Predict the structure.
Amino acid sequence: MNVKILLEKQVGDMILRYRMDENKLIEFNLYPAGAELPAEGESGQVLAPLAFLRFEGECGSAFAGGMSTRYAESNYRFQLEKQEVGTNSIVTTLTDPEGVRLVHTVEWTCGVPALRIFTKLVNNSAEDVTLELLESFTLGGIGRELPHKEFNNMRLHRFRSHWSSEALHETGTVSEFMLERVSHVVHSERYGQTGTMPVRGFHPFGAVEDTSRGICWGAQIAWSGSWQMEFSLRNNQGYEEGGIVLGGGLGDYERAHWCKKVAVGEEFSTPYAIVTCVKGDFDELCDRLVQRIESELDYPASEEDLPIIFNEWCTSWGCPTTESMTRLADAVKTLPVKYLVMDAGWYKQGDAAWFNGQGDWLVNKEAFPNGIGEMVKNLRERGLIPGIWFEAEVAGTTSKAYYENEDCFLKRKGKPIAVGTRRFWDHNNPEAREILEKRVINFLRDNQFGYVKIDYNETIGIGCDDPDSPGEGLRRQVEGCHNFFRRMREVNPDLVIENCSSGGHRLEMAMMKLTSMSSFSDAHEAISIPLIAAALHRLIPVRHNQIWAVLRAESDLKRIAYLLTGGMLGRLCLSGDITALNDAQMSLVRKGCDFYLKLVPVLKDGISRFCTPPIVSRTAPEGVQVVTRESRDGKQLIIFAHAFAAPAQETVVELPTGDWKSVECYQSENTGSAEVRDGKFILTAPAEYSGHVLLLKR
């Protein structure tokens, strides 16, 4: 089928191209400026829609059921109504014969190397319609111009995630993902997660790399609920003429039990995705997406210098008191620590455990006999900003709220959803919102807390009661959750909010926009910390990446340096036995904290690169990991080197060209030699489980 270019526009260093076939189906393509673009006007080309959708009652292509809800017939009935090119956007409106409109929006910001894309459906037909799929973005035709034999030069990328093992990079060829074409059926790889922990299983990320031409395409979805990404290939008469199609958005009916009725005269908009391409490598692609995330974040003034946090979770393990918090404040006031955070357990009543007492949020009078205000006062007198932990969105089995407020909780099939010891407040229930306002938001204000860690340690699963579907109930709950976070900052404008969900299970853009930093993982004392922390450089801003460094009195100096150098890969968060460290241990901690602060300018604004082969095992890692982070102006460079079991006797890494000088190195004594010589970083005879960080300047 013949195609033509409908519109081509350069945005920064990217070419946006809209192509239309003779049936007026429109596809969106993205290319690096200067790349050789596919020829137009050729026959036999198969286009992908601007955004895949499916209405209730439709079926997809042959053998697609259970694998993909793309390629329903309705996708091919939409035709161009108008296309509007603005200063910072292109809005393309399509209409089907019944009068349903599909509005596809691409937005950009000058100097930010990634786009925002979302889709809106407007029902101007005579009847209600029910969606079972509506993608936020669909990037079509990737590699269409390549002959069949070159398709295995295309690599697909995604990141897996499990509890305490986030951001595990997974990549493979078209063949390894079983997307090679062998017949007329759709070949698809659909993945994502279902529930209210958006980074449990996978991160909402997908990328395609053309290794032969050095071009990468990629996207992240900004959504805190059920989502999906999909790679697919569709051809015509057995040839790979459709190219790879990358797209995603809300989880569909098959994966996430989501369908949405759009009544006559109503409209529905998807969450947005951020999308980019680059003539460069995978690290450059990831950096462009992270720059887009960074451009949309909003931080309180106290966050400007990325101050150090001390969180007492790994100190008291859920048993904080006024006395213990004051003792910690006296210890950390000698360090450049700004936030002292009291974690779970401050609300326990009687013998209740920390994990089932949420909901009432009454201060434990035995632990805080003079009220929580005394503890806050003690911390502020020592120059610290007091912080506190809430798992605000749930109520536990030992709280009165669990039993007395049943109508305020999410329900499925008319019964409150109970997972383990938790029920979930309904963010769209006015009474529930009033309870959270009083017990959480006003509590923070009235007690002068400057920092709050909002944890979230369960998922509601497929969804909750809603007239349309459980998945739609979940979507509305997520929107209510976002409003709760906005309200916290509205009432407490200077409040620093930490985003946590069993560690890293909310590490996605929508939650990061509402918070100041994110817990990277629940890997509190694991040897895998440098692996996870570094891997997240490809997915989230480094300044948002809060990393544990749990200090133990029994730890030797090598272990302490290993933990601190791991923490330097993001926002340094101390915990553990700070009051019991000896002079040598405390001196090494103090030096580490001071050194971290020198890294802040590059941590805030730089590009990270992975210089050594990937280490897959998180529980028994072997070898050496070297990651560099170069400032945007090219004047400073941080080298992070971590040795695990059985490290090589010598590891040599080529550095970016320039006359680099080692300004300072942080490591423990007798753990190997880390130096820069002849434009190379050389790590010699590193001790097992040792950490080394160098700061270089031109």
Q: What stands out?
A: The chain has twelve helices and 41 strands.
